Amino acid sequence: MSFKGSVIWITGASSGIGAALARALAADGPKLVLSGRQVDALRRVAQQTGLPGEDVMILPFDITDADARAATVDQMQTRFGRIDLLVNNAGISQRARVLDTEMDTLRTLMEVDFFAQVALTRAVLPLMLAQGGGHVAVTASVSGKLGSQGRAGYCAAKHALMGWFDALRAEHARDRIRVTTIVPGYIDTPIAYAALTGDGSAHAKPSKGNARGMDVDACAQRIAQGLRRRRREIAVGKGLEMHALWLKRWFPGLLFRLVERLPG
């Protein structure tokens, strides 16, 4: 399936997977809505897509701001009249152990990585139902399938995403609402720099895991292909962490022991 002429809204589109996915899906000739908080970065991504200006809408907003979410949904609908694919890609990571992580930091992680994604999806869902169908995707993580040291809050939020969107898929399967959960491993993006430390400040350091991860454009091409094929789940990555997905299913005890030995 091609997304030619479809209206695609990507959040977290100013960098990383979101920006790369905008470039990858632009090859189909869709109408793109690009959201994030960095306007200049969104403009650069819009130019990189190669799409004509009338087919790209830059819609900056803070995804945790309820009023801004409602306003952006209205603006998107006014501009294009429909929404065929929503890619919930905004999010933030974490680098802090359990006892070093303040409760306010945990609440921030849940607000950004879970509640904001759910709220935007709920705001868009009535539009999709009214138009007779649509497709919702969310960027979860391998951390949404297993727990790892130094990322307890992030893992909790991503586990919650997996459960909520799986339930959404089941509830609206007969309404022609397709739901895709994207499960990346380590991808070479700057996500670690903005990751939260225990007190909520930015980690501001590179990640060895991400640096050795899959090239972000190769990752986006895999995701784009999975979305075109309407896959329910897209696991993407190249590192040893990808083996954890089947180890968790078939040999959970072995996986738990391996994770316990990894550095935090």
UniProtKB/TrEMBL annotation:
Keyword list, A-Z: Oxidoreductase
InterPro entries for this protein: KR_dom, NAD(P)-bd_dom_sf, Sc_DH/Rdtase_CS, SDR_fam
Gene Ontology cellular component list: membrane
Domain Ketoreductase: 6-190
GO molecular function, one term: oxidoreductase activity
SMART domains given in the database record: PKS_KR
Source domain of life: Bacteria
Family: Belongs to the short-chain dehydrogenases/reductases (SDR) family.
Protein name in the entry: Short-subunit dehydrogenase
Organism, as annotated: Rhodothalassium salexigens DSM 2132
Taxonomic lineage: Bacteria, Pseudomonadati, Pseudomonadota, Alphaproteobacteria, Rhodothalassiales
